[in-house]
Amino acid sequence: MSKTALFFPGQASQYVGMGRDLYEASPQVRELYQLASDEIGVDLANLSFEGPAEELKRTRFTQPAILVHSLAVLTILKDSLPEFDYACGHSLGEYGALAVAGVMSIEDAIRAVVKRADLMEQACLSQPGTMAALMGLDENQVEEVCRKASSKGVVVPANFNSKVQIAISGAVAGVEYAVELAKEAGARRAMILEVGGAFHSPLMEPARRGLEEYLSGLTFLAPRAPVVANVTAEPAATPDDVRDLLVQQVTSPVRWSQTMNYLLANGVGQIIEIGPGRVLSGLAKRDMRPEQSLTLDKLTDIESFVAVTA
User: Fold this and answer.
1) Which of 3, 158, 241, 270 counts the most CB atoms within 10 A of its CB?
2) Mapping DSSP to helix (H, G, I), strand (E, B) and coil, where does residue 167 land?
């Protein structure tokens, strides 16, 4: 029998209206939104449900909004959560994976992501940067493009999203030059992304230092199931390793393509994406070709899933 992996989405999966049905269905979910709102100082429920979209896109709000949505799905599932063999999340989604595996409490995961999002937004403001998506070049070609473009400013691979989709990150001039070089190298597409800054690049170093200090005060436990880390595309060995990898993740690339390769090599054939949208399911369908792929986003998704598995 094939194994099951739980996926937790990251930034850019948000949409206005996300989580409203979950919020209305469960007092426990409303408590999660209240906790996050208290930590942020903004009504996260209202922002998630009503927008505006531009405000919801802000790093400070997007990250906790997506995480709380994922945790809300878990809260409503309760004992209907299926047995799983691996958990993993894309960037901030890694905190959802750690929560479902029992490494962090749900409350600590929310507080940590609120802190992470605030630190990353501050880093974006202090060291402006951008990102770009490159399609049709392999890892070695992208590495070479970044190396050459670094003559104009720091630029590095940031997200290895799939075999053909890699995002780069860094100083505006460096990323813009990298887009030109990528097109010359034969990229099918190379485009600047509408993001708040240079995520998963050295420009996030102030956020990395701040998060390291914050996470040092949280408790991390041994996982109930392996959590595949973004930085290494392998499960962390100890709770201390988990903490260290979360810190490294801020300035290191997200190795999502390599994570999917690891899951394939270890017999994963069923994917369940937990949270808003279906970005990760889409990537998996192309690169992993799973036997089964489910998305648990809305209340109707959960009800259908529970009815089938009951």
Assistant:
1) 158
2) strand
